[in-house]
Amino acid sequence: NEQPKSIIVIFGATGDLAKRKLYPSLFHLFQKGHISEQFAVVGIGRREWSDETLRTQVRDSIKNEIEGEHTKLEEFCNQFYYKALNVTSKQSYTELKTLLDQLDSRYHIGGNRVFYMAMAPEFFGTIASYLKSEQLTDTEGWTRLVIEKPFGHDLESAETLNTEIREAFREDEIYRIDHYLGKEMVQNIQVIRFANAVFEPLWNNQHIANVQITSSERLGVEDRGGYYENSGALRDMVQNHLLQMVTLLAMDPPLRLTTEEIRSEKIKVLRALRPIVEQKVKDSFVRAQYGQGVYDGEKVQGYLKEKNVAPDSKTETFVAGKLLIDNYRWAGVPFYIRTGKRMAAKSTKIVIEFKPQPHNLYLNNGDDPGANLLVIHIQPDEGMSLMLNGKKIGTTGDTSSVNLHYSQHGIDGINTPEAYERLLFDCMIGDATNFAHWDEVNLSWTYIDAISEAWEGDKDSLPSYSSGSMGPKEAEDLLLKDGFHWWPIE
Ligand code: BG6
User: Fold this and answer.
1) pLDDT in tens, 290-330
2) Which residues bind substrate (predicted)?
3) Mutation pick for ligand 1 pocket among 147, 185, 228, 237 (CB with most ligand atoms within 8 Å)
4) C-alpha to C-alpha distance for 36 and 45, rounded to whole angstroms
5) Cis, peptide link before residue 254, omega less than 30° from 0
């Protein structure tokens, strides 16, 4: 029962992520006794706030985000401190160092420090280099850098950012967040695969017809139009969350459950991804934008009418794609992915479709036996189901489908706060398994850049889909031409 102790320095303490995810997650860890009471949080922002202003914000955020008992809330908030910082002023860092040293001795923290970058990415590099030059990373304990997405905008900018932060932190001190890796059922993928004798022998191109990963959202871009216009669904969701799920589904069993072994298997999957060459992008990737639609009787506007969105924007809010993995295990098995905003449901699900029996004895007996499916429910419900065929009761040999369903109820329904809780804890105990290694980021950008470059050169207009639907017809066609269809995710 390790109880890590650390100062947590949050750059972007006045921002949305801190309020919605980081403060509630830290509070959970504190309340449950998972982190030592010897901790302090230093919030950094541009505004001139007092410690008290920050504490009020933290208190409010916890009351908003967490239902139920708030025991120990005052003790928790009292260990928060605020420092206004001009990210390009050396003096600011000297003052911050003095504050951190004082807190270190007040709470007997032993020099352990987490620097959490939860703000506009253009300053990540500058901050990291000052942390080093002004010796904030020079302590008796460990120092770690947690870095939020976006990790670059393409390979080139990601490389620049990586070089900058590597000047101040070693690779093993860098924790690149992908919050999907903190989700309970994403972490369960490995256990389902490697702890069950019934799946792993079938987990290959002999027995699996295709894999489908859907991560759909009901919300539109809300007030993030500015960011989203430069990103789009491909960079916002596919480069990180969806590709991470692909690697976990496709990787070979690691030799051991260590960070290095797991990462090295995931990296091999990314290396085996068949690159999208420009002329093929249309055959395997679909992009689209949401138009207007109706949700629960209420009309919503299309993407082009959203705040901070160009009226002729070609930013995609939906992506569907077909990925091929060129290795012995997966040759010929398509991995279909789709993600989008303003879709019918908030849902993340993975469907593994198994190949049909080599010879079908039940072809003419009632319904054609359906495909066997393994469905991994990531969110909002958490669990798995297995679709099998059984005998239709009372008939001679007709089949009917049987759904074996297991559901584990997430404490918060949608599991995101818990994901951050887990990842923050992992970082404090020095476990980087569920963070993205630079090689993963590098390879995933390489794959994605080819798609975005092809799209940039494409003058055709974007298909649109109605808000509240499951995306455009083109996404259906992507599977139909291979003889498959998207399995319903509801
Ligand atoms: C973030 C994206 O990484 O993931 C958002 O930037 C998206 O656009 C979010 O809404 C989805 O996360 P979750 O946990 O709600 O599925």
Assistant:
1) 999 999 899 999 999 999 999 999 999 999 999 999 999 99
2) 179, 183, 217, 236, 341, 346
3) 237
4) 25
5) no
Q: Is 12 left (phi over 0), alpha (psi -120 to 50) or beta?
A: left
Q: Which long-range contacts (CB under 8 A, 24 or more apart) does 97-104 make?
A: 97/134, 97/135, 97/136, 99/42, 100/7, 100/9, 100/42, 100/136, 103/7, 103/40, 103/42, 104/7, 104/139
Look up the pTM and report it: 0.95
Higher pLDDT, residue 2 or 327: 327
Alpha carbon distances (Å) from 264 to 66, 171, 196, 250, 335:
37, 14, 22, 13, 20
Q: Structure tokens of 85?
A: 């910082």
DSSP state of 469: B
Ligand 1 environment, Cβ below 6 A: 149, 217, 236, 348, 416
Q: Where are the beta strands (DSSP E) in 148-192?
A: 174-176
> Is residue 412 predicted with pLDDT exceeding 80?
no
Strand order in the sheet with 174-176: 80-84, 39-45, 6-11, 113-117, 143-147, 174-176
Residue 194 burial by CB count (10 A; 0-12/13-18/19+): exposed, middle or buried? Answer: middle
This complex has an ipTM of 0.99
Tokens matching residue 154: 């393409």
